Amino acid sequence: MTTQAVRPVLDAAGAVPEQKQAPAPRANSTGGRWRSRRTVALNVIGIGTMLLLWQGLTAAGAINSFLLPSPVAVLDSLWEMSKDGSLWVNLAASLKRVCVGYLMACAVGLTLGFICGWSQVVAELVRPIIEALRPIPPLAWVPIAILWFGLGDMSAYFLVFLGCLFPLFFGAYTAVRSIDRNQINAALCLGASRWLLFSSVLVPASLPIMMPNLRLALGIGWMCVVTAELIAAQTGLGYLIQQSRMLFQIQNVVAGMVAIGVVGFLMSAAVERIERRVNAWAPSERN
Question: Is the pTM of this model over 0.85?
Answer without folding.
Answer: no
